[in-house]
Amino acid sequence: MSKRFLNQPVLWLLVLLATGAIDVYAGEQITVSAAISLKNAFEDIAVLYEKRHPDIKLLFNFGASGDLARQIEGGAPVDVFASAAQKDMDQLDQKGFIERSTRKNFVGNTVVLIKPASSGMDIRGFEDLLKPGVKMVAIGNPKTVPAGRYAQEVLISLKLWDSIPGKIVFTENVRQVLDYIAKNEADAGIVYATDAMVRAREVVVIARAPSGSHTPIVYPLALVAASTHADAARDFIKVILSDEGMKTLQKYGFEPVR
């Protein structure tokens, strides 16, 4: 097929099909693009939703918020977007890609420094990243990964960013940082507190980022303006914001929005 006949929405549909983010299904289905840090909680919330709506299939596309936002701008067939940062949602909002009236801040999070549970390295705080023995520090790519931007802000606030550039390894998303640390492939990493909880046996939380060292972490969600299943998508948002949905998020360490 000639590329000039392959428009953006069709292209993104093929990409999402190929990656398994969506599949072929005869009934109604909605696609939720969400920050990968929400993966475990959203999969549990999906069970609540599908009990109430057994005739609707819920499909997830998890990844870095910046990448997901660009996919939506490119025409990806998405119904709900949940971001780990305001920046990515703001960009979509300004360009008319979301239904502004549905936008809602729903949970918060915390930045933590972690190391492998199997590591004997003496790292007790962020300042220990300066030690010669610390060779690799993993963080998300600040250009596309909110957790990476928060990590960068923390390191700049603590006057460490310019001192450890040769040690920093950028990852595609925050869960990749977690994977590096769990497998002892990096000496330390900066992730969300919720991520550290997911693999608590494999990683050790060394320290929480000091208060005021980064932009407040607030997750927004919204209905995508181009959604072709708006009613079903709105119902999913309602389940997330319900008492049961919020209890599920808090179970995974997410904090109520103040």
Number of contiguous helices: 9
Order of strands across the widest beta sheet? 2-1-3-10-4
Uncertain segments of ≥5 residues (pLDDT<50)? Answer: 1-7
Distance between the termini: 51 Å
Overall strand count: 10
Please outline the major beta sheet.
5 strands, mixed
Sequence of secondary-structure elements:
HEHEHEHEEEHEHEHEEHH
Helical content, roughly? Answer: 25-40%
Computed CA radius of gyration, to the nearest angstrom: 19 Å
Give the percentage of residues in beta strands.
15-25%
Fold blueprint:
Layout: H1 8-19, E1 28-35, H2 39-52, E2 56-63, H3 65-73, E3 80-82, H4 86-94, E4 104-108, E5 111-116, E6 137-140, H5 146-157, E7 168-171, H6 174-182, E8 188-192, H7 193-198, E9 203-208, E10 218-223, H8 230-241, H9 243-251
Parallel strand pairs: 1-2, 1-3, 6-7, 6-8
Antiparallel strand pairs: 3-10, 4-10, 5-8, 5-9
Helix pairs in contact: 2-8, 2-9, 3-4
Description:
Helices cover 36% and strands 21% of the residues. It has 258 residues and is an alpha/beta fold. The protein has a 5-stranded mixed β-sheet with strand order 2-1-3-10-4. It has a 5-stranded mixed β-sheet with strand order 7-6-8-5-9, with helices on both faces. Helix 3 packs parallel to helix 4 (86-94). It is elongated and about 55 Å long. Residues 1-7 have low confidence and may be disordered.
Question: What brief labels describe this structure?
Answer:
single chain, 258 residues, alpha/beta, 5-stranded mixed sheet, 9 helices, 10 strands, 21% strand, elongated
Short note summarizing the structure:
The protein is an alpha/beta fold and about 260 residues long.
